[in-house]
Every structure is written in C-alpha cells, then in structure tokens.
Fold:
Amino acid sequence: MGRAVFLLIAVAFLGAFLYLNVLPRFSPQPRAQPMRFSHKAHFEESTCEGCHVYVMEHGAAGTPTLENCLDCHDGLQSEKAEDQKEEEKLVVYEEEEREIPWAPFPRLASHVFFSHRRHAAVSEIECATCHEDIAESLTLPGNPPYEFTMKWCLACHEEQEASTDCVACHR
Amino acid sequence: MSNANDERFNADWFANVLRRDTRLLVAAVPLVILVLSAGFVYWRQFTTGMGVTGLNRPSYWGLYIVNCVFFVGVSAGGILIASLVHALGVKQFRSVARIAELMAISCVVMAVTSLFVNLCWPQRMHFILLYANVSSPILWDMLNVSLYFFISLAYGYFGTRSDLVRLMSIKPRHAWLFRLMALGYTDVSPKALKRDDIILRVMAVAGLLAAVGMHSVTAWILGLTKARPGWFSAIMAPLFIVSAAVSGLALLIVSVVLIRRYLRVRIKDEVIRRLAQILTFLVLALGYFLFAEMLTVFYGKEPAVLEVFETMMHGRYAVFFWGHLLLGLIFPLLLFGVVLAGIPRRWVIIGGLTLLPIVAGIAFVFGLAMPFAKVVGDALPGWVGYAAVWIVGLALLQACANERLGEDTRLGIAAGLVVLGIFAERWNIVLPSLMGHSALPLPGVSYAPSGLELLLVAGIYAMGALVFIVAVYLLPLVESEEDEPPPPVPDRSGIEGPRWTTIEDIKPPRWPEIKPRWTEIKGP
Amino acid sequence: MPRYGMVIDLDRCTGCQACAVACKVENNVPFSSPELALEGRTIAWMQVLPFYEGEFPEARTRFMPALCNHCEIPPCVTICPTSATYLSEETGIVAQIYPRCIGCRYCAVACPYTVKFFNWFKPKWPEPMVAGLNPDVSVRPKSVIEKCTFCSHRVVKARERADGEKRKLKDGDYQTACQEVCPAKAITFGDLDDPESRVAALSKSPRAFRFGEDLGTEPKVYYLREGEWDVERER
Structure:
C-alpha cells in the first residue's frame, strides 16, 4: 500500500516534469514559410553574404528583402516548372508591393547577445561552423534546424581562447 | 487541584486517534480557507512581482524572513525537547515528546514555506544546487533545512510506527490507514521495539545536531553579512540557539496546555511544571545574551550599530522592542516565579506596591524620559510614566496569576507571552538593521507589511496549524509506554471473594495542598 | 587582464544629474514615479546623492554620484547562492546574470552601499519610449536584481572594434555612458592596471578616497575629495 502511494507520487512528479519541461520542446508546429527556398541553389550562384547582407557588418545577419532578391531575379529564370512556380511568387510580391513574409526563428534567448560581425568578419569563422549544412538544404526549414546551447558555445570559445566571461554574451 | 487534573487527563493512550471531533473540524474550515486564499496571494505575487508586498529598497527582506527565522527556531526548539527524551533518556518528558516532534515538523514546514515565498523564481530553485556557490550561507541553509526536515520526518516515523502497529489491531476498520502510515511495518516484538529504541536514539542525536546546525546557519545568513551593522556579530548564532530553545519550549508548553484542555490526553501537571522551570532558566539565559549584546553596542558606541539600535528602540517598531523586553521577558519571568513558587497574589501586590516608590524614585533621580513618549506625549514627568507602567504590569500580573485559572493555564499564558516576545525579537533582529542604517543618504523609507503579505503569512500559519490538526486526528499524541501499560479494567461481576483492588482504587494519601510557609506562622 | 575602474572628481561634479539620465537611457532602466520613489522602489544604477551639512546660514550641500563600486572583494558575490552575480576576471566588473538570478535579494541585503536594485514589478515604459530602448542591453524581467555593469556591453563592442582594426584596446576606447555625458568631465573611466591610463593616475591622487574603505571591500570606484573650498574657509 505504502509503495503504491510512493509510486503514485513519483509518477505524478514525473508527469508534471514531462508536461512542463519536455512536452513544450516537441510541441511547436512547423512554421509556414512563404516559399520553398533552396539554399543549395543559391549558394551555387552566390555567397552567404550575398543574401544575408549584414552578416559582416552587424550583429544580426538579416534576411533578404524583396529588393535583394530582385537584384538577381528578373522575371522567370528557372528552368524547371516547379521552380518557376516558386519564382512567380516574387513577381506577385512585387506587384502587390509587399515584403516577403519570411518566418525567421528567434534562435537565441533575449538575454543572449550574439554578433555575426564579431564572428564572421572579425574572427573570420566559416558560416558552416555554426550553421552546419544549411547551405546544402533544398527547402526552408519549418522548425529551428539546430539548437545552440551555451555549452556548445563555450566549448568553441574555450578552444579558440575567446572570452568565456558571462558578460561577453549575457547583459 | 492538581490530582483532579491528573485524573481528568488520564485518558486512553489512543483516545484522540480518529475521534470525530467537531471542534477540530470547525477549526479546520477557516484554516483551509486561509490556506487557499494564501495560495491565491502567492499566485498574485508570482505573476505581478514582489511589488505586492511592502518590501522596498533598504528593506529587501521583511516579514517572510522574520517568519522563517522564527519558525526555524521553534522547530529546532521542539526537536531539542524531543531529543531530551530519546537521546538523553529524560523519561519524564516522554508524554510530550511526540507533541514536540509534531510541532517541530509543522514549524519546519512553515519555515520552508516562508523561505519559499520570499524567493521569486521557484522554477529556478534548482540553480542553488546546480550552480552551487559554496561560500553562500543560503546554499548551506537550504541543504541543512532539507536535511533537518527529512531527519525530523524520519524521527517522527520511527517514534510513531510501533504505536501505529498497535493501532492496527485496536482500530481494525482503519487498519489500512495505519499500515499506510507505518509504510507497511508490522513488527512489534520486544526485539523490534528495542531496535526502534536504538534507532530513535540515533535519530534524536542526528536531529539535535541538524537542528543546531540549521539554526546556526540561519543565524549566519544574517550574522556573516558585514554590510549590516547589528547583524554582523559573533553573538548571532548562540543568541539564535538560545532563542530557538526558548521559543520551542514556550510554544510546546502552550500547545500542551491547549491540547490537554481540549483533547484529554495523558499529560501530567508535573510535566508542564518541569517544562516551565526549564523555560524560566532559558529565558534568563536569553536575557543574559541580550544584555551582553546591548552592553557591547552601547559601550562601544559605534555609530552605525548605534543607529540600528536607535531605530529598534525608538523607531516605528519600538513597540516590538519594549513589548519583547517588558511582556516577553520580564513579565513572564515574574509570572513563572509567582506560579512556580506558589506565592499568593496578595503578597505579589504588597511586594509590588512596596517596590513602586523605588521604581519611581530611580526614574526621578536619573531623570529618565517618559516611556512611550510618542504615544502618550511628554507633558508629564518621566517618573509618572514609569510608575504607571509598573502599576499596569502589577495589575496584569494580578490578573494572570489568579489561582482560579489553574496552574497549567497560568504557565500557558506566561509561555504564550514568551513566544510572542521571541517573534518580536526576531523582527528586532532582522528589520532594524535593514531600515535603520544605510551608508548612503537614502530617503528614509520604512517597511510595513502589505495586506497581501499579511494574508500570505496568515495562510502559512494556517498551513502549519492544519498539519498539526491532521496529525492530532491521525496519530496518538502521547507515546504509549509498554512498561507501564494502562491498567486493565478487571471484570468484577463473576469474581467471588475479596474484591480486586486495582492500583487506581488505592487513593494516594491526599496531601494537603502545599501551603506557603507564611500561612503556618499566622498564629491561632 | 584589464581591471576597469572609475574616478569621480567631486570638485568638478555640479550635481547636474546628466550621468543619472544617461545611465537610465543607456541601460534600459525603467522609469520611476513619485509613488514608486515614496515606496523606495526607484531603480537608479547611477544616483547623484545630496549630502547636507550644517544648519542654516552655514548649511551646504555636497553631491556624490553613487553607483556600484565594483569591489575587488565583493560581498554580494560571496553570498550569491547561484553565482548569478560574479566578479569578472577579464574586466574586474561585478556583473549580474539575470537568467541565473532567483530573486532572493540576499546580495541587495549584503551590499554595504545599497546599490543593487530589485525589479519589484515588470518594467514599463511610456509607449513612445519603447522604440528607444537600447538593443544592446536586455530588458530585465520582473523579480531579478540589477546593478551598474560599467556599461559592460560597451567593452564588448570596443573589443570587437579594436579586433576588427587589428589593434589593442587603448585607453578611451571603452567609455561608460555616464562618463561620456558628464559636462564637467568629473568622471574618468579606464583600466586601473594600465600605468598609462588617466584613471590610474587620478586614482593615486592624494585627494582620492574610496567609499566605505574600512569595510575591506576594495572598491574600484575612487572619489576625489573637494579641496579648495574647505582650505579657504579654514584659513
């Protein structure tokens, strides 16, 4: 009898823990992206900096605006029909004078401060070091493609003898 | 009178267990409501922020911490008494050991809850262990309090389980409940009882150490803070330990008196008297510690510390200081003296009135200022005030020492005053250091608990009381003693010959009530 | 490793409060209100405190900008149960990590200078001000302690700039907001260990003193005593 109650309490605790801590991590639904964007195709033609234009100058790398896209895309250039269908969306945005509604992921918590310039321009770190093989992807991800943990950041910082001071990233 | 009391309280060992008592139920209803509303208040505080309390910039800590420190002390004091029985074998207090344990457990629950509501991020509480900072007294306090909590629970369990097993056969309908509480334990063979005794002895020593450790660490949370004059003192931990023993013992006396009055349990008058005697000495020790502290402060005249003590003695909460001194220390001491020594009331009044001119004279000669000048103004000379305080005290003593109240009630009143006094003392330790001194010329902001804060604290009290009530309903309040079993009621109907004489039937020679010596020399 | 410190020349301080305002704006410190001030719940990392001396005709007021002293032996760091507040080895800054803070307020109690502030409520700004919040500094949640950080986000930026230009950080690269705005140049900031720096020179001035030095906390904020006034009157 006593054991049963203990078990019950343990199960209740476990349940509460799962519900509060684990479940939310699995629950977010994939976010709808405005179009099927192939990083791979673009990376063959251009560089990361070509579309994420602020990556060398600012903290945030920035997502391409319609104007950035239209610098290269002039009418329909794709060869395959399905690609053309996607490309057509750009034309529509242009006609409607609307920005592309990308669904970016707020990857870092609000108290973590990261500078792309610091890493990409000053320290000359390859994009792929953190962004893995996003350049090979054929579609835009609906969920965050990778998770950055503090442990992961610190491992590299220690290896590169960069600052491991808390205030370097947390303010 | 004392004999009559003893007979009234010679109830069955297990009389209180599962007894349907409407009074307990009636008491529980408002308590549950209080706890629920406190839960609501906590939710409010959690979602809106600590701003719902009265805390502010210099007084970052307030009633919650005072409360925590107070209950940690009471709890430690409770374990102290219980361990007297089990570790040192003071058999005399065996009948109150379990009440002391229960009190210790419910008080540590209140202490932990008070500490918990003072914390703003319960979801980050594990950080204390995860990112432990070994130099932080809070880490050690948390470890020590949890250790103490589990030890006191285990202590309570090992001390109760043999009684629970006995209850299984006495109340077979609810055997499952007692089996559950005994965690499936059923062994009451003499060997097992002996083993339990040894376990209890070990647990008692462990509990005692944990209690002293816990309360010392709690004292060091304050006492190691050099930023706060008044706290930063080596006397903090010893003072806390003495205060703990005083408050624990005093609250134990109050609860024993109440329980005896309303629940009929086997506790003798003698036990209360002995407890009160110990308490008297402890209160004297507390007075000595306080005197040592005050002397150092006022002799040293260090400005910052002096500022703190000025705030304590003449500030907004001066009534806490004077209340503690007059009603929490001196008055109970006198009352204990009168009751324990059996001095008749007319001698009290004669002695008091004889001393009155001396008190007023001292005040006059030293030109003491009017006491409580903020309340009564200072139109009259100081000695009038002192004489008035003396007369009021005397009248109170007259009222409280009334023999018709019964010895236990009178001791209970004195002990209750001591408990309130210790609460005031805790307030005086925690808050004046925060409010009274600042290195910066901050605008003088004082602290007053907000309504919601008070409600939350009331809810915490109610929770402790509920724990106690549930325990009163479920557990035998007095440890049954195998070596002195309740006398069996002999079946006399079928027995011929000489009537059975039980021990109960033999009336002990009724000694005349102990009369004070002076009545004998009154003459014809 | 640099050891940043500050020197405040009380002789130059006019009590204009520019530093207090600049600090609030730079660090996203929420506004106060008369009601909050009466309750003692104002947050002000940098405060210009008046010290009143003497009785009326002889009365005078001194001003003292009070901020976190960034002690070398900080009592708040010793007692923090979660190490949410810590002494940065790289900069000597005593910093507060908000997501680590459990809101026990022990550090605020243990600070002899009462310069740790608690967020009693969720911080609020008037609508037009929200757009003006500094993106380099987080907006604190309710129920955490916050304190002066010597504008630590600026040291990160200064280092980034210096590294980008492939040079070492030099004196004056890293300035705090209060120093920048002080019209009387009363506030000097820099590396105390750098013998070339202005702050190191000033901190050795015979006028220099530190607040509550007898507590043994070794503050890194130095004040320069007012001189001339008193001397003239004493003659």
Remarks:
- The first helix of chain B runs from residue 2 to 8.
